[in-house]
Specification:
homodimer; about 425 residues; alpha+beta; 5-stranded antiparallel beta sheet; 18 strands; about 25% strand; globular
Chain lengths: ~425, ~425
């Protein structure tokens, strides 16, 4: 019997009523509201023939043992940013739960392969700035030494916040035991961008997550009095930064799916009567092709040095973070498109700009694919984040079909 | 007998030792350190045959009565910005004091015209953001209603700070009584810019103060996820602002002495992973010619609307402050050049980009001129502000000569 989309929508609304307020969802990881959301989720498992436990990194695993120990994992995350939307992350977890329920019913509690649902811990990194916490621990790409110094706004360390959730920071790598028998991973997520809405499509098969080069770029010029310093005597750090802010569009424009973003500009001294002596900027560059990403990074560096020199400034780069592009599994992408075409007139393939827990799983070489459902206005991380109910219903149906196809594919191997 | 530059330099050093620290001068107006500086100044008058009083706005006046009641006023300000330099403002006051002392000696306490020294209250506006406080009260261009709501960082109102200095805010306009018999006003100041150093000249006659148009310009676009929003779907408020930051150089470049400065840029949400949805900037434009200034203001407005439209953004302008250009007195500018040429091989004429108390006096129609002495590296409002000792000595000599010539001119009228 098909998964029932109405169950998913009812659960989404119930969860939002329980853990949101008039500013949006408030399920920030490692806070009481998040714990409440996860307890509510576990309560939903009561009548299912399943095993549930939290792993060493706080990921929440539900298992329906199958004839084969080889497992199909469906997952996403219940945590949200502060003042978040009602779909980001929890749509994937609650759809996974409904598909899981449907399989349990269809196979009378004993499907041909083992089915698991995972709610990854702290995908968003909203409180400590460390996104993909649980999935990276699972994947062995965690960074305990670097993360030990992380604190939230109140000065509470990540380590202490973990301990309050019964997670021992030194042992989070033990989450890797959950990899055993893992045969495929599937994740449904809202697009969080405007592409599908613009194309008038409900769903897309995701080809992978783009690699990211994220840097801090600081231009150093000379602070000077706005009234007494002739234009020709200036070493205006803002001018150099402004030129780069415009140039990154040409750099991204050379490639069809590339994006480059200057998201933050800070001026010092930053007063109306002074030429900017120091300008601190950030640059975020993404592409699915590692060579394209490397070229964009190199081009931005060259441009920044050229502009700095032209403006009598210097420039310093420092890496904030980077990750390589992570392509998803070709056959699972095909299956995803098949599933979409069974519920919608057309499918579409697109890379994901945002990162997802699926990227951490795919890095391990586990066959992985994601399905996107259209976001209205491309907005997420905001209480106005939304998707048409009819599109959510199509998404649940298509994701169930994808899971069934993947299960057959695992069985046939 | 000539004024003795060594007295001025000794006094500057004494004042700095008394009211500065290792971060620079700390004579912020309406603070105890400023009061201390002013008491020290009054103590320097002890052996002179003079009258001293504070007017209703806290300006400090020293008077040496002459044969004629018509007065020549020499002035500047003792207040500084926080962490300021050792010359800004106090060079003018202490040079005025030395010239005053020389005249008192030369004329045996009874010069042909009355000579006065004024130390204007709060030229910098460093604590409450209201510069030219005392001289504008004197000139009748004060703004009591608007200034009543001003507070410092600790929330103390300007009105309360004035009261603590025995100044009644409602009565500051009574400082206008000091205008009586005022025949001419002279002010010596450091250039605070790089022009004279670049030209290899110690001194300049100032032709007037540039008019200023100072505005807040806010671009509104659409906040969007840096990973999921294709370049072509963006409404990037930073891009519109960056184009304006570069365009203002062309706008200023059409005119030889014009300056345009974008001093502050703030990005919202201002995070590495979001396209800028709102960008708040400031624009400061200056020229000595009112028509040029008006044209530059209009050109910047037009450019901002054009860029906003091209980027899918909107833009709002709001005035922060403006003042018209204030030309100095043609004959006094000639006398200033004569005086400079008696001590240096060449003179130079230039407008002042920074405002000065002299502008408030000149607005009244009082014959006014300023003399600039070279600033090293064009730096002021900073503890490294400096001028060569030999240039300071030339400045005192030339300013004395200018005062003598001006006195003769007043006498001859």
């Amino acid at each position: 019997m098909p998964a029932n989309p109405q169950n998913v929508i009812a659960n989404l609304k119930e969860l939002h009523a329980l853990t949101g307020d008039d500013r949006g969802a408030q399920r920030v990881a490692f806070t009481p509201m998040w714990t409440k959301a996860r307890e509510w989720f576990v309560s939903k498992l009561k009548e299912l023939p399943v095993e549930h436990h939290f792993d060493a990194a706080g990921n929440s695993w539900v298992t329906l043992a199958g004839v084969s120990a080889r497992s199909l994992v469906l997952g996403s995350h219940l945590d949200s940013v502060p003042n978040g939307g009602w779909l980001d992350g929890c749509l994937g977890v609650l759809t996974a739960l409904e598909v899981f329920r449907a399989f349990a019913e269809d196979y009378n509690g004993r499907p041909p392969v083992t089915i698991r649902v995972v709610d990854w811990a702290d995908e968003e990194g909203a409180r400590f700035g460390r996104s993909l916490f649980g999935s990276s621990a699972f994947a062995g790409t965690h960074s305990i030494a670097a993360d030990r110094s992380r604190t939230d706004r109140e000065g509470i360390t990540l380590e202490d916040a973990l301990r309050a959730c019964q997670i021992d920071m030194d042992k989070i790598g033990n989450a890797s035991v959950e990899r055993e028998h893992l045969a495929a991973y599937l994740e449904l997520h809202i697009e969080q961008g405007p592409v599908l809405e613009r194309m008038g499509l409900p769903l897309a098969a995701v080809t992978g997550t783009k690699g990211v080069e994220r840097h801090s770029i600081v231009f150093h010029g000379q602070e000077a009095h706005s009234g007494s310093t002739p234009m020709s005597d200036r070493r205006d750090a803002l001018a150099a930064a402004a030129r780069l802010a415009l140039e990154i569009r040409s750099i991204a424009g050379k490639h069809s799916d590339s994006v480059c973003t200057m998201g933050s500009v800070k001026t010092f001294p930053g007063i109306v009567t002074a030429v900017v002596g120091r300008c601190e900027t950030t640059l975020d560059q993404r592409d699915l092709d590692a060579e394209v990403l490397a070229a964009m990074y190199r081009e931005a560096q060259e441009a920044s040095h050229r502009f700095a020199a032209q403006e009598g400034c210097t420039v310093d780069w420092s890496k904030i973070w980077s990750i390589e592009p992570i392509p998803f599994h070709p056959h699972l992408i095909d299956l995803c498109e098949e599933a979409i075409r069974e519920v919608a007139p057309r499918s579409h393939r697109m890379p994901s700009g945002p990162l997802h827990d699926a990227a951490e799983v795919a890095r391990l070489g586990v066959p992985t694919v994601m399905m996107f459902v259209q976001s209205l206005k491309g907005i997420s991380h905001n209480k106005i984040e939304d998707t048409r109910i009819e599109d959510l219903m199509l998404a649940v149906d298509a994701f169930h079909r994808l899971a069934a196809k993947t299960m057959q594919w695992i069985e046939a191997q």
